[in-house]
Amino acid sequence: MPHRFFIILKSFYQNFLDLLFPWQCVFCQKESDNPYPLCSNCLKQIIINQDFICPYCSQLIIKPHHHNYRNKNLYLRALGIATSYQNPIVKNTIHSFKYQNLISLSLPLANLIIEFLEQSLFFKNLLSNSKDKLLIIPIPLHYFKKIKRGYNQVELLAEKVSCHFNIPYNTKILKRIKNNPPQVNFSAKERYLNTKNIFDINKNNISLINQKIILLMDDVYTTGATLNEAAKVLKQNGAREVIGIAVAKG
Questions:
Q1: 3-class DSSP state for residue 81?
Q2: 112 to each of 126, 231, 245, how far by Cα in Å?
Q3: What angle do CA 107, 228, 100 make, to 5 degrees?
Q4: Which residue of 72, 79, 123, 181 has the fewest C-beta atoms within 10 A of its own C-beta?
């Protein structure tokens, strides 16, 4: 754990650099008034969704058990999407964060999730009734992909959400065992096949998810194939429930 002095010194140094060389907004290209390359004016144009939805019917969840039936092929209890990927500002920001090494964009993107969760009645009930059972797990990258990129963008988001709500998170439980190609140009059926059996559990840490409510986090949700496959592995290994959370829905 770094000494507090060095954390403060690093923060001061970063603020000093931001004063000398202010960021340029990744969307409007104007000088950003924030310590990251996304200006306040563009941030204001991002609409936050109302609450969690049912992953089966996409309707708002208004009861603890929205559906009385259980579909054996679907493993998420609920889905929380902060905003829409159709918003060009959101799309541009996430793309820059993932592929242009603009790690500082983790702050505004995590804040979108935090703002969504703070206004969610579904999440408030979770905090009130089951906070001691909550555990955040980010969708992992394959080892080779993480080495190539240098970081897992979802881990950076999960860490900030974890700190804000004081909910533990763990990056050592779920692992990606297949380096599957990106989902971007695949059909729904191809996405399902592309994500089949790509995750496994680190058996040394399996006890950490026993009867836990997992907040499974990703950056973009499209068909849900990746989240559902990860949720399946978590539930098969002892998790009580799995709840999906993402920055945006494509």
A1: strand
A2: 19, 23, 11
A3: 35
A4: 72
Contacts of 213 (CB under 8 A, 6+ apart): 126, 130, 133, 134, 135, 239, 240, 241, 242, 243
In angstroms, the CA 177 to CA 74 distance is 21
pLDDT in tens, the chain (250 residues): 444 554 455 545 545 555 556 789 999 999 999 999 999 999 999 999 999 998 888 889 876 666 644 555 789 999 999 999 999 999 999 999 999 999 999 999 999 999 999 999 999 999 999 999 999 999 999 988 999 899 999 999 999 999 999 999 999 999 999 877 665 666 666 655 667 789 999 999 999 999 999 999 999 999 898 999 999 999 999 999 999 999 999 8
Instruction: Report how far residue 250's alpha carbon sits from residue 53's, in angstroms, rounded to the nearest whole number.
Output: 15
Contact 104, 35 (CB under 8 A): yes
As a whole number of angstroms, the distance between CA 200 and CA 233 comes to 6
Residue 128 structure tokens: 């009130």
What's the topology of domain 47-249? Rossmann fold (3.40.50)
DSSP characters over 145-159? HHHHHSS-HHHHHHH
| Separation between Cα atoms, residue 30 and residue 23, nearest integer Å | 9
Q: Yes or no: say if 161 and 109 are a contact pair by the CB < 8 Å rule.
A: no
First to last CA, the chain: 37
* Calpha distance 130→157 (Å, rounded): 22
